[in-house]
Amino acid sequence: MSVSVKMKEGVERSSLVRRMFEAGMVLAAEVGRENVYDFSLGNPNMAPPPAFQEALIRQAALELPGKHGYMANAGLPEVRELTAAALSREQGLPVPAESLIMTCGAGGALNVIFKTILNPGDRVLVSRPYFMEYDFYVDNHGGLLESLPATPDFEPDLGELEKRLSGKTAAVLINSPNNPTGAVYGEGTLRALGDLLRQKSREAGRVIYLISDEPYRKIVFDGITVPPVFPYYENSIIATSYSKNLSIPGERIGYLAVNPRAEFFADLTAGAVLANRILGFVNAPALMQRITGEIAGVSVDPGVYQKKRDCLCAALEEQGWEFKRPQGTFYLFPKAPGGDDLGVIEALRRERILAVPGRGFGLPGYFRLAFCVSDQTIQASLPSFKRAKAALAQGG
Amino acid sequence: MSVSVKMKEGVERSSLVRRMFEAGMVLAAEVGRENVYDFSLGNPNMAPPPAFQEALIRQAALELPGKHGYMANAGLPEVRELTAAALSREQGLPVPAESLIMTCGAGGALNVIFKTILNPGDRVLVSRPYFMEYDFYVDNHGGLLESLPATPDFEPDLGELEKRLSGKTAAVLINSPNNPTGAVYGEGTLRALGDLLRQKSREAGRVIYLISDEPYRKIVFDGITVPPVFPYYENSIIATSYSKNLSIPGERIGYLAVNPRAEFFADLTAGAVLANRILGFVNAPALMQRITGEIAGVSVDPGVYQKKRDCLCAALEEQGWEFKRPQGTFYLFPKAPGGDDLGVIEALRRERILAVPGRGFGLPGYFRLAFCVSDQTIQASLPSFKRAKAALAQGG
Q1: Nearest CA in chain A to B266
Q2: pLDDT at B15
Q3: Which residues in chain B are closer than 8 Å to A234, comparing Cβ atoms?
Q4: A2: which of A24, A62, B6, B267 fits an S-S bond (Cβ 3.0–4.6 Å)?
Q5: What is the DSSP letter of A334?
Q6: Mean pLDDT computed over every residue of chain A
């Protein structure tokens, strides 16, 4: 045996995206990186806000005994306090510091909570399309992710969900603002979802958790705010990161927050602290904890992404591409002409545009464009989108 | 179900150490933190080397597009190059950058490699005493850690090992310099271990990996160096961190290195990169990668810990405590008088000294003192150690 059977399969399964990534690299090598329009990666092009850079310089210079030392696995007490205060304002109810475990980003937070709650064979439900790393995160800890159709507006379909919730369901996972659709779930949806989960938990004789993955909460447009989840369902848990709202995904800082009214609050927080420790995270990086605590509430200006959305959407609408305008995130999820997601990716690649097929999110028939790129890239890419569309129309 | 059965048990299992930690907190509250001699934690008291602080300030101020952005999951290419160059010198053979995956410390690196290699039910062997987080790290990924007796010098007992190696064995885990004993495994031991694993791998028809957890490599005394593992066994993997040699355990930075001559090098590195990603680490923190790359090879002065060791050992020897002087780390692992590890911990606590019982490392009959504390704490604690020894002698 070279490596584990599961990992060998995992590496092979990941190879579609890798092959595409490599095709992009080959393309970049052929025509020059600057001549490729790369809409494939959710890597924010915006610099972190000035407040982050100021806090970084201040914290770097700070002399403080034990500044880079171990701490409680849940994180620095003062950082948890500052973060809890900001979260309380956001959720509209008091969240104590004890609710929070500082984590290595939202990916870390999700692994921590799945490790905490999943028994072997437990199911986690999610609406399609979805960020397919979730499959791994659930499988890592012995569970199984099941996806189900969303509504036409890409909100959770509560009718479908009701049919699928069972005694095997440990949790429902939501992601709003959504990657890849940009949809923001309405307050009514969250309220109805909470009611459904409350009723189904009673029927199943076990708590069905609601896990809200929300790293894009601050990246929303047209003045909307994302409704909080804590008020609508007591057994809810938030996983989030500062990757997108501070443009620091490489620094791996975020947190997990357990609803203070959760039925098994003490078990959940103690379990999550232990999971954070034994999965090898131990604690979230100390320096980044201090910085995000200090500037809790600061974000990049979503107006910058809104301008990119408006520019890209107006042009693509005019060219005849079909999509729902995203309310948040920096993703656009158009229909693939003729339903052929691999075909559209290939047509775009011929025009030097890189994008991700819908099957990479569990929903062929669409494709994802990440518009966290420069305005110049968007502008310059528009004729290429037009030619790709024309080529697809001729071929179809 | 509140949380998973396994995590509920894990939290309960962890409660011995937690209760001791809490007893220490109670003691500190009663008599004042400054009046407690805390030898319980492996949290280095030394400040990071000046080169770290200088690099931190420089890197914080650096303006660089995408400085805090995503990167390849294995880490920043230039950091892997710099780290590989330092590792090549240390191991005495050329290690390419492709061997390295930057990780969230050694705890992250160990989880990554166990995730990569373990099939359900696979065994990992380790000598007692050992750092008991290993139990969790192996269990997280479906394996089972089995411990076996060490030699009287706390080196791996190859006769015992030979009896236990089987077709179920995925790996042997070593830790030199060792926590909690301070033992450094000799070159002869590593050579014989390599020969044994090569032979047993052949017999079993599967590669048995040697995993070397070595965060204390630079903390050694009396001018010795720790023999490298790569030259002695091709299917070896190093997990390490900068936590101890740079005194930055809270920053979570380290790496995994696969022996360039490993039989399944490509599978191992591809698997480890995927494991790093899907366990939610995604990548090691970007800023700390840049800093450790820049100052690769820099360490705290082990002479400072050597002085502490000499002072503590001389006094405790004179008082009649029995132990082998550590060759590295900042731990001392004396015998518990009468073999009662909980008894000695209680006798020490009465004298305001905090320590960890041997059972916390799978070996009752001993206890661990972490001497990464101030010289003043060591000096001031000596009369308390003497009184505790006397009390134990009277009680026995």
Answers
A1: A2
A2: 63
A3: none
A4: B267
A5: P
A6: 95
Interface contact A7-B252, CB threshold 8 A: no
Look up tokens 């605590």; give the residue: A293
Q: What is the mean pLDDT of chain B?
A: 95
Q: Do B4 and A284 touch (CB under 8 A)?
A: no
pLDDT in tens, B11-65: 888 766 666 667 777 788 888 878 899 999 888 889 999 999 999 999 999 999 8
Q: Which residues of B touch A117 (CB under 8 A)?
A: 1, 3-4, 7
Q: Given an 8 Å threshold on Cβ–Cβ distance, is B10 in contact with A116?
A: no
Round to whole Å and give the CA distance between A110 and A51: 28
Q: Looking up tokens 């000695």, which residue turns up?
A: B344
- 3-state secondary structure at position B58: helix
The answer to whether A1 contacts B250, with C-beta atoms less than 8 Å apart, is no
The band of A139, judged by pLDDT with boundaries at 50, 70 and 90, is very high
Please report, for residues A374, B102, B284, the alpha-carbon distance to residue A45 in angstroms, rounded to integers and kept in the order given: 7, 23, 20
Going by DSSP bridges, is the β-strand pair B236-241/B209-213 parallel, antiparallel, or unpaired?
Answer: parallel
CA–CA gap between residue B292 and residue B304 (Å, rounded): 21
Q: Which residues of A245-264 are buried (b: 16+ CB within 10 A; e: fewer)?
A: bbbbbbbbbbbbbbbbebeb
CA angle at residue A18 from B80 to B271, to 5 degrees?
55
Crossing angle of helices B5-13 and A265-278, in 10° steps, is: 80
Subunit contact A61:B65, Cβ cutoff 8 A: no
Residues B298-344 pLDDT 10s:
999 999 999 999 999 999 999 999 999 999 999 999 999 999 999 99
Residue in chain A nearest B57 by alpha carbon? A60
Q: Which of residues 237-256 of B touch A (CB under 8 A)?
A: 247-253
Mark which residues 55-84 of B lie under 8 Å from A by CB: 56-57, 59-61, 65-71
> Quick one: which H or E segment has residue A109?
helix A105-117
Separation of alpha carbons B86 and B342, rounded Å? 43
Could you read off the pLDDT of B209-241 as tens digits, one per residue? 999 999 999 999 999 999 999 999 999 999 999
Q: Is this complex's ipTM strictly greater than 0.90?
A: yes
Residues in contact with A167: Cβ distance below 8 Å, sequence separation at least 6, in sequence order: A204, A205, A206
- Contact at CB, B281 and A252, closer than 8 angstroms: yes
Largest Cα–Cα distance of chain B, in whole Å? 68
Which domains does chain B show, CATH number per domain? 5-49+300-395 (3.90.1150.10), 65-294 (3.40.640.10)
Q: What pLDDT digit, counting tens, does each position of B112-156 carry?
A: 999 999 999 999 999 999 999 999 999 999 999 999 999 999 999
The whole model's pTM is what? 0.97
Cα–Cα distances (Å) from A46 to A249, A388, B35, B68, in that order, read 12, 28, 50, 11
CB contact (8 A) between residue B252 and residue A109:
no
Q: Do B252 and A285 touch (CB under 8 A)?
A: yes
Q: Once rounded to an integer, what is the mean pLDDT over residues A300-326? A: 98
Nearest to A167 by CA among B1, B8, B3: B1
Least confident window among A142-146, B42-46, B173-177, B220-224: B42-46
Give the closest-approach CA distance of A366 to chain B in angstroms.
24
Judged by a CB distance cut-off of 8 A, whether residue B364 touches chain A is no
Mean pLDDT of A97-117: 98
pLDDT tens-digit readout, B350-362: 999 999 999 999 9
> What is the percentage of chain A residues whose pLDDT exceeds 70?
97
Q: How far apart are CA B67 and CA B95, in angstroms?
A: 26
Using the Cβ of A281 and the Cβ atoms of chain B, whether some distance falls under 8 Å is answered with: yes
Provide the H-helix boundaries in A205-354.
265-278, 286-294, 302-319, 341-350
